[in-house]
């Protein structure tokens, strides 16, 4: 009788347990992918707001530190890349270049103690990370 019970246990209970464990793992993986998608959707939905906030903080800081008699400059590479990010036409290589530019600006803002600019840069870096993740998929 005990031999029969052991055989039933091994032939029925263990496969069912492994099947249920597989379902749980599949479900958890599905939740992870869904959370990634939600993050991407959130980033895309608010990307213009994040870019506008960043540009307003940078513009406000430039107005306090620049000479008002300086002639207006041509659009910088950063401005061009931000325009592409806003339009959704940025490539992975351009996203990397923008990331490097923003990292340098974050270090400069940290050194100056410009908290508002630093927060705006970090928000834009987070948005860029979400979009770069979407571009790599």
Compact description:
This protein has 137 residues and is mostly helical. The chain folds into two domains: 1-38; 46-66 and 73-137, no CATH class.
Main β sheet profile: none
Q: Which structural class should the secondary elements be placed in?
A: mainly alpha
CA radius of gyration: 25 Å
What's the tally of helices?
Answer: 5
Keywords for this entry:
mainly alpha, 137 residues, single chain, 2 domains
Description:
The structure is a single chain. This protein is 85% helix and 0% strand. It has two domains: 38 residues; 86 residues, no CATH class. With 137 residues, the chain is an all-alpha fold.
Give the arrangement of secondary structure elements:
Layout: H1 2-45, H2 47-65, H3 77-87, H4 92-112, H5 115-136
